[in-house]
Amino acid sequence: MATAPRLEIENLHCAFGGVEVVQGISLTVEGGDVLCLLGPSGCGKSTTLRTIAGLEDISSGEIRIDGQVVTRGGYTLPPEHRGVGLIFQDFALFPHLTVAENISYGLRASRSEKAHRVDELLERVHLSHHRQSYAHELSGGEQQRVALARALAPRPRVMLMDEPFSGLDNRLRDGIRDHTLQVLKDEDTAVVLVTHEPEEAMRMADQIALMRNGSIVQQGAPYNIYNSPADRAAAAFFSDIN
Ligand code: ADP
Ligand code: MG
């Protein structure tokens, strides 16, 4: 039997106060792949991501992870039982815990398993020398790496990232993007990355879903979309890339 895709969204609708902000989105992401939800501010990217996390009610449609229904009209599996990891722009590290404690915080495992996983992740994000540091002792880029390690610690099936690089220093951002991508690939998680920046999507995505007004207007490999935009608006959106 063929295995189910890691993440499937089918005809998702979501409304606030009668206004539909997600209007029939469907997509599939396989393990190890990065799908970018790309589009201008207000087009419904974060709302879509929050429904995948189980943080937002839907009007209709279905979301499946490894073939298991996690959201369907009237049914929502709680976020902590979905196997999803979350990273937002605000890394929200616990200020009173060390780097190592931040990473192991949500882990349900024996002491030795926790220690092993923390060591492994600290090595992956190049922060072994900071295991006893606190968030305020780290640079923005280092805090981002702790947030990444913490979200990866329980081995999420799907990693959800909402504009995770937008608060970072311009000069460091590309290096951090590349490193983050390498770590995500090594962990074989499926990634949904929300961004309003075309160059970020071009750099990181295996698939781009270009959104406008709550719908996906075009979906495909980055260079296919860049070279053959679906319409003038899509072309204009990419035209700022240098
Ligand atoms: P994006 O992430 O693409 O900028 P959002 O998904 O955050 O867009 O928002 C899509 C639309 O839904 C916007 O018009 C926004 O104002 C609206 N919206 C988002 N969250 C809420 C909410 N909790 N209540 C009411 N409206 C919301
Ligand atoms: Mg948003």
UniProtKB/TrEMBL annotation:
This is ABC transporter ATP-binding protein. Coiled coil: none annotated. The keyword Translocase applies. GO terms for biological process: quaternary ammonium group transport. The chain holds residues 1 to 242 of 359 of the full protein. GO terms for cellular component: ATP-binding cassette (ABC) transporter complex. It comes from the Bacteria. One of its GO terms (molecular function) is ATP hydrolysis activity. The keyword Transcription regulation does not apply. Keywords: ATP-binding, Cell inner membrane, Cell membrane, Ion transport, Iron, Iron transport, Membrane, Nucleotide-binding, Translocase, Transport. It comes from Palleronia caenipelagi. Residues 7-238 form the ABC transporter domain.
